Amino acid sequence: MDMPMPKPNNHGFSLLGKKSLVLSHIPMFMPPHQAQLFLEVTLAGSGKEDPTRIYLEDQAKTKTTNYVLVTDPIVLPNLAPHAAKRITSFTGKLFRGWPFNTPNDAPVVVEKLTVHVTRSIYFQDITKGKLLTELTYLAFASPETEYLVHKLVQPPDLAKAPKPPDFVQILSATCMAGDKIHDVKELYFPGVSNNLTHRLKAGQKATGEMSGKKVHVDTQAELIYDPNHLI
Q: Alpha-carbon distance 138 to 79, whole Å?
């Protein structure tokens, strides 16, 4: 039996990339935000306003790397690659920094924009799945960048989970996996405990396994690291 869909809600996405833009949903261990979701997108503004140009100019000026796009109310699972009623556009606004503090002191970079989804890359409900004992990342590539995103699985009992219960992390990297990674693949590190102490660091060389084969990884920049906002 299909579970009922959540009601429309506002959702936050980390905006990544320069020439090829990627949105990574900001997951939380609370409904309706319990999902990892990656999208390739383009941005459109009103009139002659170009949100991408504004974002890149702001980034160059401030040297900030953390930009969050907050959507107007949407049903998040409708952005999944195989959603029955998949949506391909939605509206929102773009902030520099973290816009969920009280009070919100993150500057608005673009007050109103439209997101056009060119590729829905991945959707996974993080309440479903076995807890991960070995360090595991989701690897995928845009035309510009290869990304590693730490895979999340929500503990069945948050009251008994470690503090913090897990961590959000996104890195740019090069994965020597033979073919270029397009669709999401799991990259795990045998014998390495799945906790923030053992997370990959920027500028690190490591060897993991993907699809039954050894893969050499060179990490580049740590784009997002957040152990504090899952709950």
A: 18
Chain CA centroid to CA 68, Å: 11
**CA 35/CA 15 separation, integer angstroms:** 16
How confident is the model over 27-45, as pLDDT tens digits?
999 999 999 999 999 999 9
- Taking the whole predicted model, whether its pTM rises above 0.85 is answered as yes
For residues 172 and 135, state if they share a domain. Answer: yes
Q: Are 139 and 92 in a shared domain?
A: no
Which residues have a Cβ under 8 Å from the Cβ of 104 and sit 6 or more positions away?
Answer: none
Q: What is the DSSP letter of 226?
A: E
For residue 28 the two structure tokens come to 């939380």
Q: How far is CA 188 from the centre of its chain?
A: 18
Phi, psi of 157 (to 5 degrees): -135, 100
Total tally of structural domains belonging to the chain? 2
Q: Which of 99, 124, 149 is the last residue of a domain?
A: 124
